[in-house]
Amino acid sequence: MKSFLKKYLHTVVKVVIDNPSGSKHPNFNAIFPVNYGCLPNTKAPDGEEVDAYVVGVDKPLKEFEGEVIAVIHRLNDDDDKLVVAPKGKNFSDDEIKKLTNFREKYFRSEIIR
């Protein structure tokens, strides 16, 4: 099964950040190395808004508008994630894995482009 989030690839989206880079995860002993938030007024299969990692910005943010460069499709969970970057900036699959490993290491996943 492929991710329903694939429709977002290469589109520009607005991410409202609820976990800025450098902040502590509210439920786990982990620090967010990247900004993490959600797309307002969307709905993911888990019933929550669509989640997104923001890569390529080195400071904590409140919101961000950028291009969806990839989807992290979780094979053992129904909560796929978008990867959003500044327009025109790209990251390899390995770079994305390294930047999101603090959370994604707990899931089996594939990167969809």
Provide the fold topology.
Layout: E1 12-19, E2 35-38, E3 51-54, E4 63-74, E5 81-85, H1 93-104, E6 109-112
Parallel strand pairs: 3-5
Antiparallel strand pairs: 1-2, 1-4, 2-3, 4-5, 4-6
Concise summary:
11% of the residues lie in helices and 33% in strands. By secondary structure, it is mainly beta. The mean pLDDT is 94.
Description:
By secondary structure, the chain is mostly beta strands. The protein has a single domain (4-112), classed as Alpha-Beta Complex (Inorganic Pyrophosphatase). The protein has one helix spanning 93-104; strands spanning 12-19, 35-38, 51-54, 63-74, 81-85, 109-112. Strands 1-2-3-5-4 form a 5-stranded mixed beta barrel. A hairpin with a 6-residue loop joins strand 4 (63-74) and strand 5.
Number of strands: 6
Q: Give the low-confidence spans.
A: none
How many structural units, i.e. domains? 1
Overall CATH class: Alpha Beta
Mean pLDDT: 94
CATH topology-level name: Inorganic Pyrophosphatase
Strands in their spatial order, largest beta sheet: 1-2-3-5-4
CATH superfamily: Inorganic pyrophosphatase
Shape descriptor reads globular
Number of helices: 1
Estimated radius of gyration: 13 Å
Q: Could you describe the largest sheet, including whether it forms a barrel?
A: 5 strands, mixed, barrel
Structural class: mainly beta
Could you tell me how far the N terminus lies from the C terminus, measured between alpha carbons in angstroms?
15 Å
Secondary-structure element string: EEEEEHE
Strand content: 25-35%
Helical residue percent band: 10-25%
CATH 2nd-level architecture:
Alpha-Beta Complex
